[in-house]
User: Fold these one by one.
Assistant:
Number 1:
Amino acid sequence: MSDGNKERAATQLVTLGRDARASFDFVNPPLVRGSTVLHRDVAELRERTRQRIEGADAEAGAAPPYGIYGTPTHQAFYRALTALEGGHRSWAFPSGLAAVTASILAYVQQGDHVLVPDSVYWPTRRFAGQTLPRFGVEASFYDPRLGERGRAAVEAMFRPNTRLLFLESPGSLTFEMQDVPLLAEVARARGAISVIDNTWATPLYFRPLAHGVDVSLHAATKYIGGHSDLIMGTVTCNERAWPPMRETVHFYGLTTSPDDCWLALRGLRSMGARLAQHRATAEAMIAWLKRQPEVERILYPADADDPGHALWRRDMSGASGLFGVVLKPGIAEKNYHDFIDGMALFGHGFSWGGFESLLIPSSPERTVTPSPYGGRLFRISAGLEDPADLIADLESGFARLRAAG
Ligand SMILES: Cc1ncc(COP(=O)(O)O)c(C=O)c1O
C-alpha cells in the first residue's frame, strides 16, 4: 500500500486506499457491510470503546467498536480522501447537502454568527438563512469577491461573535472566484472556523487546507462519483477542526453506506482522466459559444476573460467542466424554452459532474450582489460525449432561437 505522500495527485488517485494484502490479494478493497463488530473478550470491548471515546479512530488504525464508526470500506475511502486533501481526517455523509449542514452545526452554538457568500449553493443559503435562526445562530451573506477590496474589507464583515466563515469557490451558478487564502487567514485571526465547498475544483485541482481553510467539503455526488448513480457528501478536516466534527458525526449518528464509499473510491480511480476530458469538452464548447452573437459572456474561471481568472491561476491547478452562459437581453421566454427543450444530447436536470452532459436554465438568488447580467443564464455540465456532437446540438438550439427571431 502507498501512503501517497510523495506522489503527484493523478498517481494518488490510483494508489490511495488500496492494500492488496488486506484485500485477499485483490486490487480493490473488499466491500464490507456490517453493524456488529465482535470483540474477543470484555477487555477488548472496553479498550475499543475507550479508544473511540478518547478520539482514536479507525483512520488512525484503531478498531471501531461498532459499524456506525465506519467499516474497512469506509476507512479505505477516508484514507484516500484525507491524503488527497492533505488533511487530518475525513468523513462521508448521505448527501453533499448533509456534509454542508454538518460542517456548520459542528462549530456553532446559540448566539453565534456565521458568514456565507452570496453566491453559495442555494440549499446552503436556505439552511443558513432559515434553519440556523431556529437555533439562535444568525447568518449574514457577503460579496464573494470581497477579497478583491483587500484585507480591511474582509476584516470589517467579522463580528465579535462570528464563529464560522463559509466559502464556495467558484460560486454556484455565477462562478465568482474567492480569495480563499486571504479569507481563511482573516477567519483564523478572528478565531473563526473556515469551511469551503470545494466541489467544483475537486481535491485534484484545489487543496483548501494548504491555503489555510479548516474544513474542505465535497458533494461526492458530482465528480468523485462521476456516474450520476451516487448521492454522497464528504468532509476533510485539519487537526483543529476534527474534534468538533468527530463529536458531531458520532453524537448525531451520521454515517453513510459502505456500498456508497466503495463507489466513491472507485470513482476516484478514473476522476483524473474524466476531469481532463470534461474540461477539454467544456473549453471546446466555450470557444464555439463565444462566437455566437446571442452570447453575452461565459462564466468559467479557467477562461482568460473571466474576472476570477487571476485568482484561479494563482490558486488552482486545473478546472472541471461546469460553466455558465449569459445570453444577451431580449430573448422571449417561449423562444428560450424552445432553445432548451429541443436539445437532443443535453439532458435537463439538476446535479452535474456525471458522464452525461446537462444544460439547465438558472436563476441565481442574490441578496447583497444583485446579478449584473440583463440576459438569461444557463449552466452546462460538460459530459464525456464527443464535443463535436455537443456543439452540433447547441448549434441547432441557436438556429431555433434565430428562426424565432
Ligand atoms: C456546489 C454544490 N454543493 C453541494 C451540493 C449538494 O450535493 P448533493 O446534491 O449531494 O446534496 C450541490 C448539488 O448540486 C452543489 O452544486
Note: The chain has 13 helices and eleven strands.
Number 2:
Amino acid sequence: MITIEQLKQSSDLIKKIRPSYGPILDFYARVFLAQEKCKQDIRISPVVIEEDLLKIKQKNKLPLIDQSEFLIDLKASERLFDKICDLAYNFAPKLSSNAQLLKNAGQTQSFDLKTLFSAILNNQSSTLHDLAKRLNVPEQELVFFGYASIAPSIRICSEQLEAYLIDMPDLNKGYCPVCGNHPDMAFLDPEGKRHLKCCFCAHEWHVKRMGCVFCENNDKDSQHYFFSDEEKEYRVNLCDNCHNYIKLVDLRQIDRAFYPKLEQITTLHLDMKAREKGYTNAGSLANDVSL
Ligand SMILES: [Zn+2]
Ligand SMILES: [Zn+2]
C-alpha cells in the first residue's frame, strides 16, 4: 500500500521525466490525493456472501459480486464530489466551467448525487444520458466526476471482499474475481509475475504470464507488443484475435512507488498509439479520465 507522501513523490518524479504531462498531473495527482484522503474517512459495513452462494461462485468461476452490489459511503462521496469539482475548477481548464455548474447543481438540489452514483453502480446508461442532457454536461464528464467520487468507497468495499479470495485458487481469468469487470492495466511484479488491475474496483489479481487476457488466445502469431526505448518500464500488448490491447508496467524497471492510476494517466500516448493501430481496450478508460 502506497502512502500519500509516496504518491506525491511518484507524481513529482513522473513530472520530471515526462514534462508534457505536467498540466494533466497538476489536476489528476490532486484528485488521487483527495481520493486517498477520503478513503481514510469512509465507513461502510462489509458485503456478506453466504457460504452456499460462495461455493456456487467458486465452482462456476464467477466473480464474488456484481458491481451494483458495491456499497458506498454517501456522505463521504458527496464531500469528495465537491472537492473534485473545486480541483477541476482550479486545475483543469477544460473541465472548469462544467465543474462549477455541477457543484452548484448538486448544492441547489436540482439534481441528486445519489441518483448519479446509483446510475453508475447499476450501469444505467439511459439515466446517465438523461441526467447529462438535463444538466447540459457531456455524459462522459458527468460519469468521470461521479465515478471519481465513489471510487474510494468501491475500493474499500473490494478490499473487504478480498478476504473471500484468500483461500481460493486463482481464477486466472481476464475478468475481476471481485466484481467481474475487465482489467484496464497489467503489471509485472518484482518477480516477473503478471497481475491485472480491475477498471472498476481496482482489485489486483495474478494471471499467467503469457497469452491474451481478454480472449485467452495463446497463439504466438496473434500476440504482439510495442514499446519505446525511452520508456523501458512500459509495454503495450496487442491481440490480433480479439483486437484488444492492454498496457503493462514492469515494476522491475521503475524506481518510484507504483500507483497504478498515476501510471495510467501518464501513458495516454500509448493508448493513442494502440488505438491508431486499430486496437481497443475492453476495460474502458472512460471512468477514470476526462480530458
Ligand atoms: Zn473489480
Ligand atoms: Zn485477445
Note: The longest helix spans residues 139-161.
